[in-house]
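Lab notebook, design round three. We kept the backbone fixed and only want residue identities now. Task for the bench partner: fill in a sequence for the structure below.
Input structure tokens:
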């Protein structure tokens, strides 16, 4: 699929996808005869991982590191036990960091909801709109 379809599916801008390509996070699987970037479902899945990491505060280097670890684990290549364990531990560390960030966001959301409720409680009740 071309970059426009990928952008629509991932809800990322063309500029953002190109930036991720320039930084080496995602590389189009092919190019059309006209030079257009062509992406696979795997490329879209990779972009979705990146999109999910971004709001949790992960850096581009951390994204690259996690993607490298998962790529190597998923490749099915022969990994010795120590290497497989090291890669698994890297992924586990990212999962823990993500879980910690999610919990922080839950606390922030609860505080924001409390604040909004406090403001609503201070507003005078309004009469229903008349037709």
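Proposed sequence:
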């Amino acid at each position: 699929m071309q970059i426009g379809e990928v952008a629509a599916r991932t809800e990322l801008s063309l500029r953002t996808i190109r930036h991720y390509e320039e930084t080496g996070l995602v590389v189009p699987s092919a190019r059309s005869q006209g030079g257009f970037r062509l992406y696979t479902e795997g490329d879209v899945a990779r972009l979705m991982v990146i999109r999910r990491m971004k709001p949790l505060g992960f850096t581009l280097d951390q994204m690259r590191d996690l993607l490298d670890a998962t790529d190597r684990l998923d490749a099915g290549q022969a990994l010795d036990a120590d290497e497989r364990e090291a890669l698994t531990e890297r992924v586990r560390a990212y999962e823990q960091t993500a879980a910690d960030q999610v919990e922080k966001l839950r606390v922030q959301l609860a505080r924001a909801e409390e604040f909004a409720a406090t403001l609503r409680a201070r507003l005078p009740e309004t009469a229903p709109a008349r037709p």
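Keep this in mind before ordering anything: Helices lie at 3-10, 14-22, 41-53, 60-74, 81-122.
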